[in-house]
Amino acid sequence: xxxxxxxxxxxYVAGLRLEERFAGLHAASFIRHFNAAEFEDFIAAERARDxxxxxxxxxxxxxxxxxxxxxxxxxxxxxxxxxxxALAPAREALLTAAKAGRATVSRPFDPVPTGADSADVVxxxxxxxxxxxxxxxxxxxxxxxxxxxxxxxxxRDLIPPDLPLSLSLVDEDAGRADETLLALGDLxxxxx
Length: 192
Fold this sequence. Notes:
Structural class: alpha+beta
Radius of gyration: 18 Å
Strand content: 25-35%
Number of helices: 6
Number of strands: 7
Helix content: 25-40%
Strand order of the largest sheet: 2-1-5-4-3
Largest sheet: 5 strands, antiparallel
Shape: globular
């Protein structure tokens, strides 16, 4: 199948105990990749199942990248049925991971647009489908597993509270030395 069953996905994510083991983790999601024809079939199937089905947002052009599962549901349920490729930074992160064929980390952005000043990055791992009749060279991206990580929460959890420290992430590939992606002030208890 091209996507995990909801109960199996939730059991898998719960078994990983990511929130306990991975500071700053806000979401673990499965995002399904669709070309134009597949996307129309997906929408028709969802509307046959639920006539009120509607995407929260939709990319204007393919590929479409629909959040199928996102846990914990209590915090991330609203992301389900969102074509996350409608957001340029998300689209860039997903397509970069697909092209690289390995896990990648995005630039900081707000993966669920709230208008808040967000310091989240998305660790994205592409999931490939292989046409066994054509061999391994015929693989194509069927989706992605994504982990949304709040950098400020991660830093606060990893850095001892009595250590006065500031943190900056700089994009060295941007061509300018001053391309600061994220700057967090004093991360001590007094500064948070």
